[in-house]
Design goal:
A: alpha/beta; five-stranded parallel β-sheet; 5 strands; globular; B: alpha/beta; Rossmann fold
């Protein structure tokens, strides 16, 4: 059974436990990220996941109590301009933070082996060698001293559909739903294949993946934050 | 292995002066092809102090459009560069499609001066012996053309050049003298570097630099043939020689057969695809360095 299929998407948290654990984790992150900053190190937190899986929501909760000067958040989409005329990793090297500042990536270099693979933007021989290139990239980050945490937030197909409809109803979020999101749904199985390959080939001792059961947003956010707390504690 | 390099070949001033325009023309041609095809070119220079890197780079780039090629002099990492993984500062200088980057010293510093002068720990330069081939492979796999040149002179020649530079009052000879004193340690580092980092797609070319003119001719030849071979392997088409546009019929007093009325000045007839590229043979164009005609 694949890694995604073996996740229990029924995991959830009751309301009050969510608030309690979230606050506790946020406070710890505030303290730990300050320590990381003072020791001139950087954290790099990378998020991948389905559309509407809750990456944005997790990021918001992650940084809520953190000094905004100490990090930068990058939203990654289709490359444009110079990003497009350089090596695919160039735009990520460019966005690496200086020592003491941290970076959060909402979508990442994994686009190469996910959307670019499924939509055929990148030929097979190129995305096939990308797993190794990504591992080499990440090992340079970790050996330099960055604290690298990688998340894949998983939801099931029907949960995604439910959330898409929810977005469509709410005028404040309706803009988020695009033609492309619906088109990508049709390639769900192809994406599962691509994701499983990526998880298998790029989960290394230096840079393991954390899979997040995302059907319940509360559970997901707490898992993300508590994982970050543990990663920071180990790094210091 | 370095001791077996034949440093005797030389060129007279006249010989070099005769060959140089041909080199420049051929270089213009391959630059045009790679620009058209959107292929990035990286040429990196390493070499012993006093071997003539600077002059070689100067001659190589003299007639190349400065908007297309950038020369990066690499020295010790600045403070802000040390705040990121060591290859970061080189990623930042990589050329985009159709651009050219020339490195005067490069990531190989790690295996050369930083190793010999103990600026980095052994663990770090040993790691670099793997990181560098991985880095270069990623670039070449992605379609870049990489040319690596090492300019070599022997210990005695270097000593003579240091003495000559001293007589001229040239400043900044400290590193030259240091290298000459530790010459055998340098050779050890260079040999190991050549062994560990010469790959099929990114092989080293050693340039015998006792004669400066010979070295410069070698540099031209190596860059031209390496890039041309890579372009041919990638199936990049040859281009017809660029043709200057004729002036519009109405302007000339004696207009014979100047094609259709509306031909724009400044656009080449042959390949009208790069308006910023000067039309004309061998460098008639807008940028001052192209002032000489054929």
């Amino acid at each position: 059974m694949g890694r995604l299929a073996s996740l229990d998407l029924n995991l959830s948290l009751p309301q009050d436990e969510y608030h309690e654990r979230l606050s506790e984790a946020q406070e710890k992150i505030a303290v730990l990220s300050e320590e990381i900053r003072l020791s001139k190190r950087s954290a790099i937190v990378a998020f991948e996941g389905w559309d509407a899986a809750g990456k944005g929501g997790a990021i918001t909760r992650l940084v809520e109590k953190v000094d905004p000067r100490s990090y930068v958040a990058h939203s990654i989409g289709a490359p444009q301009g110079d990003d497009k005329t350089h090596h695919y990793l160039w735009r990520f090297w460019r966005r690496l933070p200086e020592a003491g500042r941290s970076a959060i990536f909402d979508r990442t270099w994994y686009g190469r082996v996910l959307v670019e693979r499924v939509d055929g933007f990148t030929p097979e021989h190129a995305w096939r060698r990308a797993y190794r290139e990504i591992n080499e990239f990440e090992s340079q980050l970790v050996r330099f001293g960055h604290v690298l945490v990688k998340f894949f937030i998983h939801i099931d197909r029907s949960e995604q559909e439910r959330r898409f409809h929810e977005r469509a109803q709410d005028p404040l979020t309706a803009w988020k739903l695009t033609e492309e999101d619906w088109r990508n749904r049709e390639k769900w199985d192809l994406y599962v294949e691509a994701i499983e390959d990526a998880l298998e080939r790029t989960s290394t001792a230096l840079a393991p993946w954390t899979l997040v059961e995302g059907n319940d947003k509360h559970f997901a956010r707490v898992k993300v934050l508590e994982t970050v707390v543990r990663a920071f504690e180990e790094a210091i | 292995m370095l001791e077996s390099i034949d440093l005797s070949p030389s060129l007279t001033r006249e010989e070099y002066a005769a060959r140089k325009p041909n080199f420049e023309r051929e270089l213009f041609d391959i630059v045009r092809r790679s620009r058209q095809a959107g292929i990035p070119i990286i040429v990196l220079f390493e070499g012993l102090e006093g071997a003539g890197k600077g002059r070689a780079i100067y001659d190589l780039t003299e007639k190349v459009d400065p908007r297309v090629a950038t020369v990066y002099p690499i020295g010790p990492a600045r403070a802000y560069e040390r705040e990121r993984p060591w290859l970061w500062r080189f990623w930042m200088k990589l050329p985009g499609r159709g651009e050219i980057a020339i490195f005067d010293e490069s990531w190989y510093r790690r295996l050369l001066v930083e190793r010999v002068e103990r600026k980095v720990r052994r663990k770090e330069w040993r790691a670099a012996q793997d990181e560098i081939p991985h880095f270069e492979r990623a670039l070449v796999d992605d379609g870049a053309i990489l040319v690596k040149l090492f300019l070599y002179v022997d210990e005695r020649t270097q000593k003579r050049r240091i003495a000559r530079a001293e007589r001229r009052g040239q400043p900044g000879l400290g590193p030259w003298r240091r290298q000459n004193r530790k010459f055998s340690r340098w050779e050890e580092a260079i040999e190991e570097m050549l062994e560990r980092t010469s790959t099929k797609e990114a092989s080293w070319s050693i340039v015998a630099a006792r004669c400066g003119r010979f070295a410069r001719a070698q540099v031209f030849e190596t860059v031209i043939s390496d890039v041309r071979r890579a372009l041919d392997e990638r199936g990049v088409p040859l281009l017809a020689p660029p043709v200057a546009a004729a002036p519009p019929a109405s302007r000339t007093a004696s207009s014979s057969e100047s094609g259709a009325g509306s031909v724009e000045l400044g656009r080449s007839g042959g390949d009208g695809r790069s308006p910023s590229h000067a039309a004309g043979r061998g460098g008639e164009g807008r940028s001052p360095s192209h002032a000489e005609g054929t």
